[in-house]
Design brief:
It contains 6 helices and 5 strands; from the N terminus they run H-E-H-E-H-E-H-H-E-E-H. By secondary structure, it is an alpha/beta fold.
Length: about 160
């Protein structure tokens, strides 16, 4: 990993990742506005991108988020394609930051996402799932344990 990406992966303060930030990726401006509003009301710092390519570019410029929330179907780069590139180009972020997919699809492609939520998503369910995944991820980092093998779907 080049020094600029390593700095971005650790963030300006060296912390990895920030405790209360969410990165939302969706190609629908209304969805981005809704998620930004909801998460900001809950005290999260929110970063947004309208496609996977923009998200990858932004990840090299910001401190790692606590969680990445991405639509699956987007025009320029799909959520699963984003996840593959994230794992390849940002392995530290991929290992430490849970990625949650949102989708209206009835059949979801198999991916390494931490969880999948189906649209339309209940806002309370979304907030509870995000909170649980962030806490579980922080706990694994604090204790130095690997994934328990528990099905991430059980965290919903």
């Amino acid at each position: 990993m080049d020094p600029a990406r390593k700095f971005a992966a650790q963030g300006p303060s060296g912390a990895f990742p920030q405790q209360r930030s969410i990165f939302v990726i969706d190609d629908t401006p209304e969805a981005l506005d809704l998620y930004r509003t909801v998460f900001e009301m809950e005290g999260y710092e929110v970063h947004t991108a309208s496609n996977g390519n923009d998200a990858l570019a932004m990840l090299s410029q910001i401190a790692p988020p606590s969680l990445i929330l991405s639509d699956i179907r987007m025009g320029e780069m799909s959520g699963p394609e984003f996840l593959v590139v994230l794992e390849r180009d940002f392995p530290d972020i991929f290992a430490q930051v849970p990625v949650v997919f949102l989708t209206g699809l009835s059949v979801v492609p198999e991916t390494k996402a931490a969880s999948v939520l189906h649209k339309p998503v209940d806002i309370n369910e979304l907030l509870e799932s995000v909170d649980r995944l962030i806490k579980a991820s922080a706990n694994r980092r604090t204790t130095g344990t690997k994934d328990s093998g528990e099905d991430p779907g059980n965290l919903l």
